[in-house]
Amino acid sequence: MTGPQTLFDKVWDAHVVADLGGGMNLIHVDRILLHDLSGLRALRMLKDQGHAVRHPELCFAAPDHTVSSDPATGGVGGFHETCVVPLAEMTAAAGIRHYAMGERGFGILHVMGPELGVTLPGATLVCGDSHTCTHGGVGAFAMGIGSSELVHAMVTQTLMQRKPKRLRVTFDGALPDWVSAKDMILHVIGREGAASGDGHAVEYAGQAIRSMSVEGRMTICNLSIEMGAKIGMVAPDDTVFAYLEGRDHAPKGAQWDAAVAHWRGLATDAGAAFDTEVDVDVADVKPQITWGTSPEHVIAVDGRVPDPDAAPDAEHAHALREAQAYAGLAPGEPIEGVGIQWVFIGSCTNSRVEDLRAAARVLDGRKVAEGVRAWAVPGSEQTKADAEAEGLDRVFKDAGFEWRLPGCSLCVGANGENVPAGERCVSTSNRNFVGRQGPGSRTHLASPAMAAAAAVTGRVTDVRKLMDGEA
Amino acid sequence: MEKFTTLTGVAAPLMEANINTDIIIPIKRLVGTDRSTMGAYAFEPWRYRSEGVENPDFVLNQDGYRDATILIAGPNFACGSSREGAVWALDGIGIKAVIAPSFGGIFFNNCFQSGILPIVLAPDVVDDFAARAGPGAAFTIDLEALAITPPNGQPVAFEVEPFRRAALLAGLDDVGMTLKRADEIAAFQDADRVDRPWIYPA
Ligand code: SF4
Question: β-pairing, B70-73 with B6-14?
């Protein structure tokens, strides 16, 4: 007899291979994604340990981290020989499907997985990357793991895990104009804190999620790890099924019908218990922007940099002071109007067509401000092609943006693409850590529309004011 | 993997909240740096003022803390990326245990892969330990007895998942343990192929 269950419980229980005792379980892994840093490392570790990949047909790879996004290079950057080529060779030797740059299907793993139908509802998916939680947008149980765990997954098709606690974030109400999925999740992280999801699997629910596109759901799930949760999920529904149907690796024919019937059963039952519940009325959410060095250092665009003296304790006060020194901002300073030198629209958070469309709406007929370098980096070859088919690339280029090749790019600078020290970047990515976009760089996380607004004014700008009357 | 039974050593306090893995090991050190040499770059942005020039204000550069084998940290320690280099970097400077009110979940699991023990304790206990920490002041962590004895203090109990504890005590390797369950995995997959055939491409 089982009582009402959550979405997460249902998916977890369906994957338990063995109870290891003491709260640990061996869970089955349905999909494994490999990238050019941790994935390559894990393949090498596996080889050194003398193991074989148990199910190469369940693994997929792409060198998203170190490829160059500079169109002049054709994607070949400084790490081509050390990371990109070895990943291609080692996956070929293991019989793993590898998507090379330039090939349709290639992209940031967290964009390309759902786009190819590799990611499926109710499936477990792992990758040596903390933003693997993104795939929860289609209802997958997806999480980042380390290289050793990745070896374990490749060799045994399982993982040893302790079942996390359950947290539900319910977003109700109607989203105001120019406020997006990114703002919703940043708002939650700002309110609840960067550690609030530690040890939890998060389910995002509520009317504002149900009426949201799959792209938006992925943006929300993407930032689960920024509140400490390894896993973020949305119950699969018709929006997801419509998104996935016909994709390269999605089930076809009778198997598709059987899969959809199965997936419909994955919603959280009425009365199922969560360890923690958070409720948000999205009507109250304003466009968000970070000022500091943690995603929890986030305020509404009409807000002010907080006063460390008002922090709850000395440690928090210390952290705020350090962050403000790094960010070059003073307590009480309004964030709106702060001058910026860079804009990055990309990353597994916000590089899908819908994100590019939102930015293009702002950029249409406008020009990037003098002294600002602005990049648009689509999340995948497919996204890039789709955006170009709609003419979005023209809007970006006409505005003065660089329209670049897909990959992680400036999100992390692993490929050598960096924001110079001391310069400020409004970025649609997910981390504003010290040095994240390059040593000494200052990152302000925001939505694509907010990033576009900053690009055309050269300062942090309230997109609602810029677009007043154009909503 | 090395066994973990008892550890006696100096504990360095790093009490800031949300210390992320980019601080523990910067991304540029993940390429071309061997696991065995990552210790040189542990906490690189804090440990050095510039390439090779130590920051004397950083605790691990101070006399009496250089040989620390334990870190006492603020909440959400090692949040952020999944990079296992964060564990290898700590391992490289001789850290064998980390005590904090909470951890980044991926880092927490990664620790066990290298025989490093992450210990979750209540914030006030962690604060008390940090206050007791000092150059040369030894803590003893007894994994068998599940107790930590701080300098001039009474033993404090802690918990570790029994499965993880047994593996650490015996120095067992996860992959080796799971491979013994190959039959169970195959049986699961056989049944699952019937329930969810779409997961297994033909
Ligand atoms: S886009 Fe950024 S956050 Fe996403 S996988 Fe790449 S580096 Fe990680």
Answer: parallel
ipTM score here? 0.94
A18: nearest CA partner in chain B: B184
The tens digit of pLDDT for each residue in A335-361 reads 999 999 999 999 999 999 999 999 999
Under 8 Å between Cβ of A18 and A26: yes
CB-CB under 8 Å, B31 with A145:
no
Q: Which residues of B touch A161 (CB under 8 A)?
A: 109
B74 contacts in A (CB within 8 Å)?
315
SS3 label, residue A345? strand
From first to last of the 202 residues of chain B, give the pLDDT tens digit: 788 999 999 999 999 999 999 999 998 898 878 888 999 999 999 999 988 899 999 999 999 999 999 999 999 999 999 999 999 999 999 999 999 999 999 999 999 999 999 999 999 999 999 999 999 999 999 999 999 999 999 999 999 999 999 999 999 889 999 999 999 999 999 999 999 999 999 7
Nearest-by-Cβ selection for B113 from A28, A149, A435: A149
pTM: 0.96
Domain annotation for chain B: domains and CATH numbers:
6-170 (3.20.19.10), 172-202 (no CATH)
DSSP A56-108: GGGEEE--TTTS---GGGTT--TTIIIIIHHHHHHHHHHT-EE--TTSTT-B-
Instruction: Answer yes or no: do A18 and B174 touch at CB < 8 A.
Output: no
Average pLDDT over residues A102-129: 98
> Mean of the per-residue pLDDT values for chain A?
96
* A 262-301 near B (Cβ less than 8 A): 262, 294, 296
For the domain with range A289-466, which CATH number is right: 3.40.50.720, 3.30.1490.20, 3.30.499.10, 3.40.50.620?
Answer: 3.30.499.10
Close Cβ partners of A81 (under 8 Å, ≥ 6 residues apart): none
pLDDT value for A413: 84
Q: Where are the domains of chain A?
A: 7-267, 289-466
d(CA A193, CA A170) in angstroms, rounded, equals 16
Nearest to A346 by CA among A333, A356, A337, A335: A356
Interchain contact, A435 vs B26, CB within 8 Å: yes
Query: Is-same-fold flag (A7-267; A289-466)?
Result: yes
The position carrying tokens 């992280």 is A189
Q: Whose CA is nearest to atom 1 of ligand 1?
A: A347
Cβ proximity of A349 and A290 under 8 Å: no
Structure tokens given for A268: 């959280």
d(CA A60, CA A96): 6
Second CATH level (architecture) for the domain A7-267:
2-Layer Sandwich (3.30)
Q: Which residues of B61-98 are buried (b: 16+ CB within 10 A; e: fewer)?
A: eeeebeebbbbbbbbbbbbbbbbbbbbbbbbbbebbbb
Which residue's C-alpha comes closest to atom 6 of ligand 1? Answer: A408
pLDDT at B52: 82
Choose the residue to mutate in A66, A67, A411 for probing ligand 1, maximizing ligand atoms within 8 Å of C-beta. A411
DSSP B53-108: EE-TTSGGGSTTTTT--EEEE-TTBTBS---THHHHHHHHTT--EEEES-B-HHHH
